[in-house]
Amino acid sequence: MTIEINNLHKQFGKNQVLKGVDLTIDQGQIYAILGPNGSGKTTLIKSILGMVIPDEGLISVLDTPIKKNWKYRKKIDYLPQIANFPPNIKVKELIHMIKDLRNSPSCEDELIALFGLEPFLNKKLSTLSGGTKQKVNIVLTFMFDTPLIILDEPTTGLDPKALISLKDLIRKEKAKGKTILITSHIMQIVEEMADEILYLLEGEIYFKGSIKELLKRTEQTNFEHAIAAITTTGSHA
Ligand SMILES: Nc1ncnc2c1ncn2[C@@H]1O[C@H](COP(=O)(O)OP(=O)(O)OP(=O)(O)O)[C@@H](O)[C@H]1O
């Protein structure tokens, strides 16, 4: 099992965001974490990454409880929703910095070519367009070889060509047996890529299942409509 979560609670001040999340994530599948704005998708992801400390509950990653155990983080690659790059360094310097920090084998050249980033390697990060920054973000996420990949809104700002490259890349990583978690508000991407849908609502996993199961449960034929209908059809997981 890749991730096991039991009774996860997290509140910020009076705002109870996660209210007892139970979740099992199996190896080798693509999971889409969905839910309305503010439903706690990023909070859930950050809890798995150890960047948010839960108030209650247990999380195990790759069969190891993560509490007070930071080493598991080396087994996860994470693409943050908003990458805060240092503005004054060049793309190639950033890539080398991250490589030095991780000190693991990496395949950045392949990825730089895939996303056509060669002309930008000597440019400062602050001068790049949003989509180009996101391509750099993707290179940094995929250049190492880890069993678990977490992508928070990975398609933001990408042009159609880059989007196709990203989807191919995700499929290639899945074929290697990796587990991939994705959040996205673009239902077309989710429908194309996800094996399993996790729908967060009011602090809990409201639905967990395949797209086929979701369509059946909501009595819809269209995935986007099924997602929209999910909360009105009593689909509690
Ligand atoms: N560090 C924080 N301090 C205070 N409140 C926070 C913090 N992080 C998140 N929240 C609050 O927790 C709730 C859930 O936020 P989160 O970012 O997890 O939602 P989300 O489902 O990822 O949303 P979106 O779809 O808009 O990205 C929001 O109400 C947010 O304001």
UniProtKB/TrEMBL annotation:
Residues 3-227 form the ABC transporter domain. Keywords: ATP-binding, Nucleotide-binding, Transport. The keyword Glycoprotein does not apply. GO terms for molecular function: ATP binding. SMART domains: AAA. It holds the Pfam family ABC_tran. SUPFAM superfamilies: P-loop containing nucleoside triphosphate hydrolases (SSF52540). This is ABC transporter ATP-binding protein. It comes from Flagellimonas profundi.
